[in-house]
Amino acid sequence: MNKPQKDPDIFGKAITAYFENADETDITVHSPDFDDDVIPVPYLFRKYEDMPKLEQKALQLCRGRVLDVGCGAGSHSLYLQEERKLEVVGIDTSAGAIDVCRKRGISDARNIAFEKLSEEKFDTILLLMNGTGIVGKMKFLDRFFEQLKNLLARDGQVLIDSSDLIYLFDADEDGGVWVDSSKGYYGELTYRLSYKNETSGSFDWLYLDFESLSLAAAKNNFNCEKVFEGEHYDYLAKLSLKK
Fold first, then answer.
1. 168 pLDDT band (50/70/90 cuts)?
2. Which domain holds residue 81?
3. Which of 79, 74, 45, 239 is nearest to 147 (CA)?
4. Would you say residue 179 lies in a domain?
5. Distance between CA atoms of 162 and 141, rounded to whole angstroms?
6. Domain CATH for 122
7. 161 pLDDT exceeds 50?
């Protein structure tokens, strides 16, 4: 659970430019492990019918008071508020994104990090678009689950998605995959973002396979259920506190 150091609010500037001026300049994603990739900013404003089935499933499972973690431009929060008529709190570390969320009509949008929230309870905690990413590294999983306990209402649920990056490694003739464990967990990545002439500092981002999520959940007294499996090693999980 971390944010980029010396962060120039890349997402906020890109989201604001698109919202106010229809500027479709991409956000570029840099990683030492992969070629550069891009995030098309209009995608952050997508409507329900344009969302992947995994996201649609998650939004249909939401109930009660919802915390939308890393809400970005607010597409999920808006759908839950306007179409599902649920009480939604959208949070993001990007001040610019939260400003746009408010202008788009989200009733409760806050510029705050997930780990800074306290003394509130939610029936659903929603973490989408690789929701495990904010954990940063495997070693922070226990701390992440502790914060979920702090914020989860009795009989509440956590809806979180991720992808198993094992597909990036070459399989042997028997279908097995060898990963060099001395380099740490294979889903721990480091990124930087750039937009126009600005670049963020480096930040850690965690992609977590379902088995590892399940083990961490059990260790922290959570149930873990896979409720949707995508076509490319992605999945949606539902977490709930064990009775």
1. confident
2. 10-165+184-241
3. 239
4. no
5. 14
6. 3.40.50.150
7. yes
Q: What is the count of structural domains for the chain?
A: 1
Q: Give the length of the chain.
A: 243
Per-residue pLDDT tens over the stretch 203-226: 999 999 999 999 999 999 999 999
The H-or-E segment that residue 128 falls in is: none
Which one, of 187, 184, 190, lies nearest residue 204 by Cα? 190
| C-alpha–C-alpha distance, residues 177 and 172, integer Å | 6
| Structure-token pair, residue 187 | 């889903």
3-state helix, strand, coil in the chain (%, to 5): 35, 30, 35
Q: Between 95-103 and 10-21, two packed helices, what is the crossing angle to 10 degrees?
A: 30
- Residue-wise pLDDT tens digits, 56-76: 999 999 999 999 999 999 999
Helix, strand or coil for residue 101? helix
